Amino acid sequence: MGSALPEGEPAPDDGALPDDVRVDPGTDFGVYLHVPFCRVRCGYCDFNTYTASELRGARQDQYADTLLGEIALARDVLAARGALRPAATVFFGGGTPTLLPPGDLARMLAGVRDAFGLAPGAEVTVEANPDTVSEAVAFALRDAGVTRLSVGMQSAVPHVLHALDRTHEPANVATAVAAARAAGLDVSVDLIYGAPGESLEDWRTSLETAIALKPDHISAYALIIEDGTKLARQIRRGEVPAPDDDRQADMYELADGLLGAAGFEWYEVSNWATDAAHRSRHNLAYWRGTDWWGFGPGAHSHVGGVRWWNVKHPAAYAQRLAGGLSPAAGRERPDAAARELEQVLLGSRIREGIEIADLHLPGRHAVASLIADGLVEPAAALHGRIVLTLRGRLLADAVVRALTD
């Protein structure tokens, strides 16, 4: 049911921003809509999601109306500060958003459109389990205003899917992609590598299968073992092996090579797209530190340098909104040092990189050794930017330490 919420100061019951916060109207505004429902809990997942037996009084069929209440609150909060802006991106994440009827997702998107407006050419993404997507669903999403479907493929190999507790049929990934294409939607597929028992050849099979689907975008994430998950407990008991760092590095290099040869370009450490137009603009907004409001239980938001997070359980979330209260559980305002560290941490992960001039003097002095170690592209550094090489992407944490120590 998700990791613990951060520590922070109490959030006001009306959701208002601090009086001294100034919101730049020129900053892009994104919307994240969290749908916290899953049919089963995957063993590796620590997202804030709930199966039917864990809802304790919350109802899926009432969820859209509940979330619309938070959208109305957000509109009032932002309007009071003159900070209303059309949404440049909207992202339905989860959980499994497509467990809800397409009509519920359409009403949620209409609520965003009515409250904030959608910018011309807005990117609207829905995450989907392959088993939940048919042509009827894809066309309904398209008609509602969705532009992009992100399909949770994870692997093409049955025993790897089993190790991850994924229940979808591998063949249904192609069915979901075909349905999205028939509806005229852009398509992304998500992969995970490093599962217990997954060989390099298994991973090659998954990559080649994903490439053959001809999506616009592929994400490939290394499996991370999160405390409190079923998989963490299995590893602790010695039932399955922990991910091997060297094997995961080999898998990453294989992914980058195969994807590059197939015409995909990396634009973030774990993300590749066929061209710049098909990069995930919503996720880029996170990495660039722009403004977004996250709606739903456990969702996080960031506006004008203020961050806050909602109560986790759907029942508590619904109860607060029914009482006319903000669902925010706490908030924080990172200081200048924390913001600078995050800028390096996130900015160095994307292809455009970060400005050397924005680094403190020790960080600027570290650039030459990073180039010598093959971690930073020399040509980009000559033009004043830190851009990671393939080796640098594999050792991104070490690069960040060198630039910020």
Automatic annotation (TrEMBL):
InterPro entries attached to this UniProt entry: Aldolase_TIM, Coproporphyrinogen-III_oxidase, Elp3/MiaA/NifB-like_rSAM, HemW-like, rSAM, rSAM_sf
Matching Pfam families: Radical_SAM
Repressor keyword on record: no
Keyword terms, alphabetized: 4Fe-4S, Chaperone, Cytoplasm, Heme, Iron, Iron-sulfur, Metal-binding, S-adenosyl-L-methionine
Cellular compartments annotated: Cytoplasm
GO cellular component: cytoplasm
Gene Ontology biological process terms from the UniProt entry: porphyrin-containing compound biosynthetic process
Cross-referenced SMART domains: Elp3
CDD domains, per the entry: Radical_SAM
Region (Disordered): 1-20
Ranges of residues in domain Radical SAM core: 23-265
Similarity annotation: Belongs to the anaerobic coproporphyrinogen-III oxidase family. HemW subfamily.
Name the record gives this protein: Heme chaperone HemW
Lineage: Bacteria, Bacillati, Actinomycetota, Actinomycetes, Micrococcales
